[in-house]
Amino acid sequence: MSSSPSREERRPTLLATALVLFAVAFVPRILVAHFLAGEPVWDGHYYDFGARRIAQGLGYSDDVRVAGALVWHPWCHYPVGYSGFLGFFYFVLGDAPWVSQLVNAIVSSLLPVFTWMLARRGLSEGRARLAGALCAVHPGLVLYSALVMTEPLAALATLMAFWLTVRDPRPVRGILAGALMLGLGALVRPQALLVAPFLALRVVDRDAPPRLFAWLRRVLPWAVAACAVALLPVLPWTARNCRVMDGCALVSTNAGWNLAIGAFPRATGRFETLRSSDGCREVTGQVQQDRCWFAYGVEQIRSHPLHWLALVPAKLGYTFDQESFPVEYLHEARPQDWPEPRRADLRGVLTAVHRFLLVASLLGCIAFTPTFGRRGARRLAGIRGGKRAVFAQGLLATAVVVFAYAAIALPTPSFWPLAVAIAILPWLPIPGRPAWPSALLLPVALLATTALAHAVFFGEDRYHMVATPVLCILVAAGLRRPAAV
To answer: Where is the Glycosyltransferase RgtA/B/C/D-like domain (predicted)?
Structure first.
C-alpha cells in the first residue's frame, strides 16, 4: 500500500501553501502601492485613461476636436487587455487611485502562487515552494505593484496558461485550455502568442519518440492547433478593429512603430521617439500609420542589415543587463520623493538581485550528482552515458562560472549573454542533462521568446519583468540530478 498522501489529504496543505505565498507577497505589495504610487505616467497614463473610458461605457477611445466639436475616436495603438481588465474594476468600484493600487497588488501577489503551482509540476515540492518564495519577495516585482503597467498581468496570464496546460492528465485537453488562456493573455501582451506552439510539448512529456522527425510529427499538429485556439479570444477584438478603425489590426498598432524604432538610422537599441521627419509624414489613421512604420522598418532592415544586426547586443543589454524601470517610473510620478541618491541606491538593489537571479538560473540547466562511494557509483550507473555525462555537466558548470565571472568583470557589466544561454541550453541534448518536462520547458520558452522579440524590436529593462518568475523557477531547479536512463 502506498504511503503517499491522497489528493484529499494533500488539498489542505496545498491551500495553506497558496495562502501563505499570497499573504507574504500581498503585504509588502499593498504597502508599496499605497505609499509610493503616484499619478500614472508614461504608458501607464494611457492604460489608466483607457480603463476609465471603458468604465464609462465609451469603449477603448478618446475624444478629438473636429470643426470645434468633440468626436468619439477609437483606439487600438496599445493592447486593450490591461485597460479592459482595470476598467472592469473601475466600473464596479469606481476609479479612485486605491482601486488600481489594490488590483495591481492582488495581481502581483498571485504571481508567486502560480509560479509555485507551475513549478511543482516539474520539480519537488520543496523546490517549487522556493520558486514561489523567491517570486513573492522579489524586490522588483514588489515595487512594480505601484505601477499602472501591464507586465504583472501579462506574466500571470502566461503562467496560468502554462499551468492549465500541464495540470490536466489529458494532454490534449490541457493544451486547448492553456491556448485559450494564452489568447486572453495576448490581449494584454500580444507576444504571448509566440509561446502558443510550445504548448504542444505537453504531448511528448512521456514516451517521446527517439527520432527528430517522429517527434515533429507528433508535436506539429498540436502546435498548429494551439496557435489556432489561442487566436479565438483575440478574433472578436480584431473584428472590432476592422469595423471601427481605418483598417484591420490583430490586437494593437504598435508593432510597426517598435520595428522602426529598432531599425531606423537613429536607433540605439532602446526606445527613441519617432518623428515625421524620419518617414510616414502623410498618414491619418492609427492602422495606416503603423503599417507605414512597419514598411519603413522592413526597408531599413533590408537596406542596412548589418546595422540592424549590430544593434542586437545593445537591445538585449537594455533588456537584461539591469533593472531600473520601477524606480524611474515612480520618480517620474513623484519626483519630490525620489532624490538621486535614493534612486541610485534602489536601482542598485534591483539590479543586483536581477543579476544574481540570472547567474543562479544557469544552475537550473546543470545536473549534479555525487560520484564518490557506493551510493555515488549506483547513481552513476543509472545515468545514461555514465562518466561521459558527468564530464559534460562538469564542463558546463565550469563554462557557467567563466561566463558569470566575465559578465561581472567586464568594464561595463554584460549579463544578457547569460539570459540567452538560459534560453538555449535546456533544448540541447547535452549528456547527463537534468529532466526537462513541459512544466519547465514552457517557462524557458517564455524567456526565449522575450529575448527574441526584443532582439528584433528594441529593449528596455521593464520587458524582462514578464520572465522574472521564470528565473525564480530555474533558480529553484538548480543542480538537480541527471535524468535517469
So the answer is: 83-237
